[in-house]
Design a protein that fits this description.
Blueprint (H helix, E strand, L loop, with lengths): L9 H14 L5 H8 L1 H17 L4 H13 L6 H13 L4 H12 L4 H16 L3 H4 L5 H14 L7 H6 L1 H17 L4 H13 L6 H13 L4 H12 L4 H20 L1
Helix pairs in contact: 1-3, 2-3, 2-15, 4-5, 4-6, 4-12, 6-11, 9-11, 12-13, 12-14
Length: 260
């Protein structure tokens, strides 16, 4: 980067230097916001820099958390994903670790069941037809439950309905969900922090899963400061409004000017 940044005022140049010093990178999508609203850019710089100045997680793990919330199916934000993959690699992340983040994030779709099955079971119970949906626990189901607990280290009542309603599907889920827990590229605590990040993201805000994953993270040795740091990192997701919106605004302003 040319630190003179021709066209930027000295104050804007200083903000750009501060961003690079605090966050370790620069991307062209910040140029528009810095030009249009340096006051807001400075406020965001100070806000987003807190976990980078006072946090305890390694920079690599911070970037993997950003990757997780960008790649989650509730967001799927490619511009940010590319930036944070580059940053993560710069901080030492391997392709295997990034793939493990993808694998952890890909099971987000199962929240359709952790939220949907209790409702389904409850409504069949209210209709007096619970036995049509929920079979008694048998030896195979007990074995699947034990297998899941052996891999993930916990059991939640959210899985009971799915296991008893469709053990074949539950077994297929266990096969898929267990892969990132078998490879061991990321330590279990970091895996749980990634789950927390996705659950706490503004594009998901899934409290039932968040509570389970916090309990799991604590059991894996996570501290309150580390979980708070995840919240701080994830809270910056709101800036994607400007990252996506400012270039569109500038383009439309140019189109209007050219049309005159």
């Amino acid at each position: 980067m040319d630190m003179t940044d021709e066209g930027l005022s000295p104050a804007r140049q200083e903000l750009k230097r501060s961003f690079i010093a605090n966050r370790g990178y620069w991307n062209a999508f910040w140029d528009g916001l810095l030009g249009l609203s340096p006051e807001f850019f400075e406020a965001y710089l100070n806000f987003s820099s807190v976990p980078w100045k006072t946090g305890t997680l390694l920079p690599k793990y911070k970037e993997l958390i950003y990757i997780a919330i960008d790649i989650a199916t509730t967001h799927l934000y490619e511009p940010g994903l590319r930036v944070h993959i580059r940053n993560a690699v710069k901080y030492g992340a391997t392709s295997g670790e990034i793939m493990e983040v993808y694998q952890l994030a890909s099971v987000l779709g199962m929240h359709s069941f952790t939220m949907g099955m209790p409702v389904l079971v409850d409504e069949f119970r209210n209709a007096g037809r619970e036995e049509e949906l929920i079979a008694p626990m048998d030896e195979r189901m007990e074995a699947l439950k034990a297998r899941y607990m052996g891999i993930r280290g916990y059991w939640s009542e959210y899985w009971d309905g799915l296991l008893r309603a469709d053990p074949d599907y539950f077994e297929a889920f266990v096969e898929m969900a267990s892969i990132p827990w078998k490879t061991g590229r990321l330590e279990p605590k970091i895996k749980e922090l990634i789950h927390i990040a996705i659950d706490a993201s503004t594009t998901h805000l899934y409290e039932p899963g968040l509570r389970v994953d916090i309990r799991n993270a604590i059991a894996r040795g996570a501290t309150p400061q580390e979980i708070m740091e995840v919240y701080q990192l994830v809270s910056a997701l709101g800036m994607h409004t400007c990252i996506m919106g400012v270039p569109v605004l500038l383009e439309e302003l140019r189109n209007l000017k050219d049309a005159q």
